């Protein structure tokens, strides 16, 4: 019997049940939920880093984005607010489209 002890998507218990299996779950308290979301973010990002092709990478990025949506709500906000902050930072500091790699800065 595998033990997972990790945050899963909302429909996973239903999917497990439809497969004819039994399971144990519990509902997390808010502070534990935030902690587990952060752990899940690292897990999903690692899966993205290990993606072998573009399609798998996009699938993993979608998972990362789902976690970002949940984290925004967890912080009492929305993905729209996160996008607004992202756009403001891009306006002030730029994005990453120009592929600039900073090697060093010389103090003179």
TrEMBL record:
Task: Please give the superkingdom of this protein's source.
Answer: Bacteria
> Which SUPFAM superfamilies does UniProt cross-reference here?
all-alpha NTP pyrophosphatases
Entry-linked InterPro entries: MSMEG_1276-like_NTP-PPase_dom
Q: What is this protein called?
A: Phosphoribosyl-ATP pyrophosphohydrolase
């Amino acid at each position: 019997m595998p033990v997972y002890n990790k945050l899963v998507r909302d429909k996973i218990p239903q999917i497990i049940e439809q497969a004819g299996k039994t399971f144990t779950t519990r509902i997390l308290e808010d502070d534990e939920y935030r902690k587990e979301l952060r752990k899940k973010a690292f897990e999903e990002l690692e899966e993205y880093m290990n993606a072998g092709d573009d399609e798998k990478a996009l699938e993993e990025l979608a998972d990362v984005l789902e976690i970002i949506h949940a984290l925004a709500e967890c912080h009492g906000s929305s993905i729209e607010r996160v996008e607004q902050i992202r756009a403001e930072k891009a306006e002030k500091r730029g994005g990453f489209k120009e592929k600039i790699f900073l090697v060093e800065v010389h103090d003179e």
